[in-house]
Amino acid sequence: MLNFSVKGKKLLFLSLLTFFLSATYCQVKLMTGGKWYRGNTHTHARFSDDNDNNDVPEIAEWYKTAGYNFLCLSEHNDHLLKKQIFCHEEITESQNFIMICGLELSKTRHHTALGIDQYIGDEISLQDGVKKTIQSNGIPILNHPNDPKINASEFISTIGLNHLEVFNGGRPEDTHASEQLWDSILSMPNGRIVYAVASDDNHYNKSNVGRGWIMVRSNHLTDKSILENIRRGNFYATTGIILNNYLVSKRNVSVSSSNSDTILFIGENGKILKKAAGQNASYKFRGNEKYVRIKLTEKSGKSAWTQPVLVSKGGIRIKNLEYNN
User: Fold this and answer.
1) To the nearest 5 percent, what fractions of the chain are helix, strand and coil?
2) For residue 229, what is the enclosing H or E element?
3) CB 23 within 8 A of CB 318
4) Which residue, 28, 47, 97, 124, is the most exposed by fewest CB within 10 angstroms?
5) Which of 253, 221, 260 is nearest to 321 (CA)?
6) From first to last of its 325 residues, what are the pLDDT tens digits of the chain?
7) Phi/psi at 163 (nearest 5 deg)?
8) 15: buried, middle or exposed (CB in 10 Å: 19+, 13-18, 0-12)?
9) Do residues 303 and 239 lie in contact, with contact meaning Cβ atoms separated by under 8 Å?
10) For residues 201 and 143, is the Cβ–Cβ distance under 8 A?
11) How far apart are CA 309 and CA 323, in angstroms?
12) pTM (2 decimals)?
């Protein structure tokens, strides 16, 4: 279990609560306690308007057995126009596993409507789907950003869209391009902080469980707590690398993992600010980076991505929660 620690007298993280084009930031006091929870935000089942065989409990059991704590069954909403199912109460939630409501809005540009409280089936555009997701108390996540390709300007112009898949298990070859998009959004003069997600995009195949997931830092394993921490960016994305420590102060950022062999500190426009070998590394802010994010890799191809830290000449402007073993 990873424990939470505070470095310095007073360490706060600034959380992007904006669902508006003009971003609004809010200081939130650093939490204490809590645990890490493993989850997948993008999964499909055969169960649909054309198939009454409910395989959702079976799929949920795959993830539960694999050590996941939460799962969103994000079926295409245009496959459920009659059934209009977006939650799966038939799954018996246990102490260590919950289901998160959601859909993949698919009538236009595909995006996950994570944590919604009502069925959405009439979106007419990406912006309309994002708006309806937010109105339904959900979190919109742009799925497989390169299928079809979306550019940074299009993403930024979509009000309320603050999450994207940097890794999609069905399209691993697109990961580099998704990272480039992420860096472009962060680097543009009118850009904003965007949080990166990894997912399986599993289509009812047990062997595809575990291709990509997120680790969410939360005080409680409840849909409310998990969703709020995803919304805040209090998580990291991974395909198999597990972090032990991630510490942010006004002067530097440091990270350690259980199984990385290379650590990259990445800044504006994807520039490599520092490259280190091994499982531990730190980077001292110069003040002109605009942002710093970390990518950890290992020789078999596994990766992990931390969320970006925004930096200015006066020091750190926005940081995510620090997590510590």
Assistant:
1) 20, 35, 45
2) helix 223-232
3) no
4) 124
5) 253
6) 333 233 333 232 323 222 222 222 222 233 345 789 999 999 999 999 999 999 999 999 999 999 999 999 999 999 999 999 999 988 988 889 999 999 999 999 999 999 999 999 999 999 999 999 999 999 999 999 999 999 999 999 999 999 999 999 999 999 999 999 999 999 999 999 999 999 999 999 999 999 999 999 999 999 999 999 999 999 999 999 999 988 888 899 999 999 999 999 999 999 999 999 999 999 999 999 999 999 999 999 999 999 999 997 666 655 443 433 3
7) -135, 145
8) buried
9) yes
10) yes
11) 14
12) 0.88
Assign domain 12-318 to its CATH superfamily: Metal-dependent hydrolases (3.20.20.140)
Do residues 206 and 65 touch, judged by C-beta distance below 8 A? no
Query: What residues contact residue 44 under an 8 Å CB cut-off, 6+ apart?
Result: 73, 74, 75, 76, 104, 201, 202, 203, 204
The token pair at 304 is 């992990």
39: tokens are 């989850």
Please report where in the chains the tokens 């830290």 appear, as a residue: 309
